[in-house]
Write a structure and sequence with these properties.
The structure is a single chain. Strands 1, 2, 3, 4, 5, 6 and 7 form a 7-stranded mixed sheet that branches. β6 and β7 form a beta hairpin. The two termini are about 60 Å apart. This protein has 3 domains: about 80 residues; about 60 residues, Helix Hairpins (Orthogonal Bundle), CATH 1.10.287; about 150 residues, Histidine kinase-like ATPase, C-terminal domain (Heat Shock Protein 90). α2 packs parallel to α3 and α6 packs antiparallel against α7. Helices cover about 60% and strands about 15% of the residues. It is an alpha+beta fold. The radius of gyration is 36 Å and the shape is elongated.
Amino acid sequence: MKNSVIKGLILLFLGWCILPLITLLFVAQIKEKHQLIFFLFVIFLISILLYLTIRYIKRRVLAPVSILVKETGRISKGNLANPIRYDRKDEIGKLIYAFDSMRDELYAQQLEHQQFEVDRKQFIDSISHDLKTPIASISAYIEALQDGVAQTKSDEEEYFRVIQSKIQLLNELSQQLSLSYQTSDSVPIHIERVDCHEWAQSFLRAVSIDCLAKGIKIETFLDNSSFRRNYMTVDTHQFERAIQNILDNSYRYAKGLLELSVNIQGDLFVITIRNDGAEINDGFLEQIFQRFYTNNKHNAEGHLGLGLFIAKTLITAMKGHLEATLQKDVITFTVSIPLSH
């Protein structure tokens, strides 16, 4: 090995072994009057060899060990950000490199833990807000019913309808929380073979009715000419949940543009959702699919930042693909599901 510490130590050891032997051989051969000069010369050589040995051990062994000792103390205090600098590629260099790799891994875990703490605080704030609002509303309507504020049967039914809607909201929130730490490999999926055209017609009809009830203007497109007898293999409940999560995100930000289109492209069943009002830079586009992501730092509306994460998890679990593209303030979500044959 070119820069081996062991090789250097072996050479020094051989030097210490060979020098006395050479000295003895010369002492036996030279005259007594020259022995003093020879001994002085030998002492000089030993001094040089001793200096080289000490210098070598200090530079190649003690110095890197002191670096490790210093870095160990720094790491023990939780300071993991600075890499360990050591350029030699000898045995100790490999040890320091392995130690630095460990530090780098610990630093990555430290950053991940710090981000987890930020996410957890945001999650607690968000869930507290999202739970507080419907619970307070339910409590208020129940008190109103107990106090006899609803004077007619129609008023009572309206109050009960509002209470039921708030309970459904809490139930939906509970379901989202149950999926928040699932992965595409662990999420429960019950696959069935579905006619693409029939599903698209039914879903677009349901979305149109829902938007009409909410006062949301949406344009839906179904490219009938692209369909034949096409089938996809999905969990319809989870698939519709995923698409609805994307739509809910679009409802929140859309100002004047909201489109939902469905067609067949080659061997894929494709759903496209477009809306304007996007408040994100192109460089941060992939972050919208991360757990708890929200571009509202104060999160005044109490959104958990789980909708798009769950949508991507569910679609990936069904062998599909979800991506987002951005052009100015118009964001386009494209869902692709492979056709089954």
